[in-house]
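Hi there, hope your week has been kind to you so far. It would help a lot if you went through both lines with me. No rush at all, and the record is pasted right below:

***
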Amino acid sequence: MAAGQIQQMSDDGFSTNKWGLGPRLPVPEGAHSDQGGGLMRYRSLGILGLFGLLFLLIISGSWYTIDQTQRGVLLRNGAFVEVEQPGLHFKLPLIESVYKIDVQTHTRTYGTGQETMEAYSADQQPAHLRVSVTFHVAPDKAQEMYNRFAGDMEAAIPPYHAAHEPRGSPKRRSVRGVS
């Protein structure tokens, strides 16, 4: 007798529990004596539905788009495979990943607000500077950008350090030959 079977049918058309004890109730014509079968059917449908949902999530995460201002670095298990051009692409789920690198022109301005850049002229007059850096990643250098900086454009720009050195310090640097 199956473990999920709660009641069984006797020879005379009455049901008893699996130990043969308890009240004998009439079983309607065409009814199944296995009361747990419906539960098992719903459970198997639920598990099948869960696997179907998981499958759809994996497949839907396999498509990706690279914009016109980007290049994609395709990685398989973390290793470089190729540079992807703009458009719709497919990747192997859970094995491949894509890192997008922006190739449009960016401008960073230093010397505004709290970060002031100071310099001194040849006659030791102070000057407060504002410096703008304009940069972009060449589309054919996307692989090199990823390899050197993991695609982080902020890491590619040397950090600005406002070193406030006193006048006459031997660590002063000359700018364009003026010391």
